[in-house]
Design goal:
Four copies of one chain form a homotetramer.
Chain A lengths: L3 E6 L4 H11 L4 E7 L8 H4 L14 H7 L2 E4 L6 H11 L2 E4 L9 H8 L6 H6 L1 E2 L2 H8 L4 E3 L4 H14 L8 E7 L14 H4 L4 E2 L7 H13 L5 E7 L6 E8 L6 H12 L5 E3 L17 E8 L4 E8 L3 H15 L16
Parallel strand pairs in A: 1-2, 1-3, 3-4, 4-6, 5-6, 7-9, 11-12
Antiparallel strand pairs in A: 7-10, 8-9, 10-13, 12-13
Chain lengths: 346, 346, 346, 346
């Protein structure tokens, strides 16, 4: 059977490069074409020497990628995906967007946080939100998928079963998140210059991060009412991983055992969600280089608080891994194809 | 003038070693004697080669330290300080305890979290809690000082002005804290073995850490009512620092400008507290190797939440630095003596 | 076709755990049985939570492993493999030893550096040295393979083509090597306690490391004369990788272009050796989690020195990866089976 | 007594910022003025938040620094110090150059490696090379001092006693050096972007680094004959430190005990050189944030090789610390003034 021809627009960014790494090991897909604005004409392995001899493909144009691919993944700065989505649509190609352009359903919210507008309302209508563990059936067979961001995968997965069942108050939810540095991208900044980040740790965009409305959108949908949350991201001096420590007040009568049971029920058949046994604590270390989301549950009985902690690889389940999972769903493949990766123990 | 003779019991643990480093640079104190159970008879510089040629003193017994010192610092596992305090008391020596034995005022609470009892109630009566920015006047001239722990310095300093003024609800306070590895001590454990911690990050003792009642004691005293908080510590793959991200609901009518003004008023004359200007975010990197506590204030106006972030060096303001600050107060020295340290920029 | 049943003795050490990770992705082998002295009766995923849900096999005894396996991998402290080899031999099982017991051909040398003796001379006769790029034909189909150590893979691969062709003097060769921390194993030591290693870097066992005679054995065999080298290992604050910076004096008339041509010829068909183009420098980062050995060549024309730098993952090509490569050769499988791993770019 | 007014040109680079940190603690000097091309008009503490409240001085122009200072330190890219030196000379100010412009005595060598020329030959005549442990008497009272680079401090100090005494061959010396990232400066580059350096390690400018002729100049002077060495620098994923592992062939009859005795004799009275006892190995960790140079000696008796290892803080003894040591000598102060810093143990 002919392999799915996969193309990556923005291949030299971190998410793009990780997509290539996963696709190289996918049994039913192969890398058909790559593009990069900054490195057109260069081999991917010139930019990432780790790939020397393994992916020496030359970066071409966006147009070449659309033409040569069955599915186009885009890892672009926000605002640049809409035209590409239209191109793919016109050419009948599936499109999986790792950027933010199609994630928010409300144009006013998009305008407020990202400053742009919905240029192709019909495409926004078609776009589905690619968080398979929560919205799998909507994704199957679709051709325009908005892949969630990293925080917006980790936080909803940590809270979904409790929010959906009404076990926690929708008021006062706090998501204290910590991200590895790759989440900030390949672009150099002074605060990600090695000597300035190393041995440091701080929050950033405190209660002002663009992922906030996206999480609220997902949680509100699950809760059936408007959810507002307080979201504080921090930058960790590690390469990969997001740890989301989520706090929610238990609703009156919500029993820890019942809450745990709801999580077990929700995630029993989810290959990529590992609900950890009691006594274990989720750690970003244990999911690196994979598409897993580890979740541990804790209760502060004194204050009646659920503490749900999730750990993902921000480049895996938080970006490229989930994008491939969505491709698998879109093309009717086994959902785990190419993603049965074992996290290194060290 | 004769220098104060300072002794350190438990000198080969991390807090003890850091005390020695600070004392070596103190203009009015000098290291008189050291003791260590594990390394009796060995030079401190055999254990810490950084000190080679600078502190080659040999570790003796606890008794020798008491005899040769004007002030005895103890960096011991909990439960072992009470006898030493009694010895110091009998010998008329000042005693500054970096352990937990004299921090909690309520014996029942101590018993619940630490499993021991108050063996010398009269000493517990005398002991003062050594957090100078909050209780300075109680410390001056005293001879038995309970030096707070690291989290229990960072969290109360972050919240004190708001709690004292009633600007936040005393219910639902959350302290999401992240600590450098030295906080776990010099004793080897599998999870602090380099390859297992490196590139990892997780919470531990979730809502079950012994520092919880100590923070609640301090905050309750400031609030004038019982405060319960949810405390989740995490272990950072860096050597030093504590970042405390504290969340509290703003009381009705509490205006962000008024809250900030209360902090400015509270910390205006505090050399060791640096209230950062708006737009800055506290970072553990900026306080390393010093006694500073940096604080930044943030407000989530959508949810009415104060987010107060403090950063200290867990070995500095969180242990040895603060102990020296307490010594200075106890002996009537300038409070900053030996502590005018400039944090390295990188 | 029935998969090869692979067993791992010493599965809870780092090399053992990495073997399991590789075997879990091997298309023609599967993990049949594990053993561990320290963790008998526990699941491997209890020791390494990364493997939760992926390898929850319980560690049994060495005897069980021999019984249930077609091939037994041993990752044991030196001295413990000889009995196990005899057991495997008696049971007709293939045996691949990641320890040192069968690597040295000269018993006197073994005794000098390791302190033991050759207890089964006949087995030592049969044992082949498992460095496929240099001795492939000897390994095919064999049942007792001594897998080289990490330094002893990196250094000979860096120097082999030059030494074999006589392009460098066999006198005065220097191997200045730097190893990631996993090379020191899972056993806790003070100098691999996170706060003491982090931000540090030093040499150890200077000109006194046990791998020295093993490298000399390999290089002497290639040179056809006795080679002595000066070997200084250093410990890097990273998890994985060995960088070997090797210095050798160019023989009179040895031209850099000719030397490079010899390397190209030697490694042209070697999948796992990536001879880097001129201008590139080998970096441990680019081979992590794989079985690759990257080599870059440099010349100091002023002093007539060849500088050959090789980079491997000490747990991959330096241990578990090479062991699987040897298994593939021993069992007549495709040599790259299970080892077509793409190093992550970050 | 009026303090020495010290000015820093290029204060916002790493060496400049470290100079400020040291000067802030100097008992007989104070920071008079700062300049920075990139940050004119900004406070130093805006660039380095660690200095908030401690050095909020505004960066002005180079001219202002010259005018307001008794001594001008320059931390500038090569080629820019010559004019400044002339300005200082004209104004009668002392000048200590942390750049390369005045280090090399031979203009042809300077031109070859740096591409420029000696514009003020008279100044080059006056300039002294500021490596006090080797050339102290030349530095006292001088007004134009070329502060050595980091590698060029570590390597000569490691080899000087052996070279001077003729205990080693001047042929075939190898310096395999490893530097912390601050050595690459504050300027962002892709290879010092956190995710790309972290967990990586490689050599750079192999046998082609500009510090080579500077080391050769120093060693040749000590040897009394032309010395050529092979120098390979590597980049370590740590912030600070240089470890120089130096290999030299022992001359016939050179006895390890005699060699060690020569080192003891040479460094007995040197406060900043710590010759470690036998059995210890120099480690960059133990000299961080100080002006120390630790040296350990090792011998490969099989191959007749001296292995001398030195460790410095590249920003301390390798730049700013040594510059202050030179200032002390130039101004007749106690040589250790402001530099009695205790390296943190962790």
């Amino acid at each position: 059977m002919k392999k799915i021809q996969a193309g990556v627009v923005g291949a030299t960014g971190y998410a793009g490069a990780e997509l290539v790494r996963i696709l190289l090991g996918h049994p039913q897909a192969e890398v058909a074409a790559l593009s990069s604005v900054s490195f057109t004409g260069q081999k991917l392995s010139d930019v990432y020497p780790a790939y020397y001899g393994l992916c020496d493909q030359v970066c071409g144009t966006q147009e070449e990628v659309v033409e040569q691919s069955d599915v186009v993944f885009a890892a672009l700065p926000h605002g640049l995906s809409q035209d590409l989505a239209a191109q793919c649509h016109a050419a009948g190609k599936a499109f999986i967007d790792l950027g933010a352009d199609f994630r928010l359903k409300d144009e006013a919210v998009y305008r407020k946080w990202y400053g742009g507008e919905f240029r192709f309302p019909a495409l926004h209508e078609q776009a589905v939100y690619g968080l398979p563990e929560l919205f799998r059936e909507e994704i199957r067979g679709k051709k325009l998928i908005a892949n969630p961001g990293c925080y917006t995968t980790a936080v909803p997965l940590a809270l979904a079963p409790a929010v959906r069942a009404g076990f926690v108050s929708t008021q006062g939810i706090i998501a204290d998140c910590k991200s590895g540095v790759t989440g900030a991208g390949r672009k150099m900044t002074q605060n990600t210059h090695y000597p300035e980040l190393n041995e440091g740790f701080s929050a950033y965009k405190v209660a002002a991060h663009r992922h906030t409305p996206e999480m609220e959108q997902t949680l509100s949908r699950l809760a059936g009412e408007a959810v507002r949350l307080t979201f504080v991201p921090h930058l960790l001096p590690v390469n990969r991983g997001i740890l989301a420590t989520c706090y929610a007040r238990l609703a009156p009568g919500a029993d820890p055992q019942a809450v745990r049971a709801a999580y077990e029920e929700a995630y029993r058949d989810e290959y990529f969600v590992r609900l950890l046994p009691e006594g274990r604590v989720a750690d970003i270390k244990q999911v690196r280089y994979t598409n897993f989301c580890d979740i541990s549950l804790h209760f502060d009985r004194e204050t009646g608080t659920l503490i749900a902690i999730s750990a993902i690889d921000n480049m895996g389940k938080g970006a490229a891994g989930q994008a491939v999972q969505n491709m698998n769903l879109a093309f009717g493949l086994e959902e785990q194809a190419g993603l049965r990766l074992v996290p290194p123990a060290f």
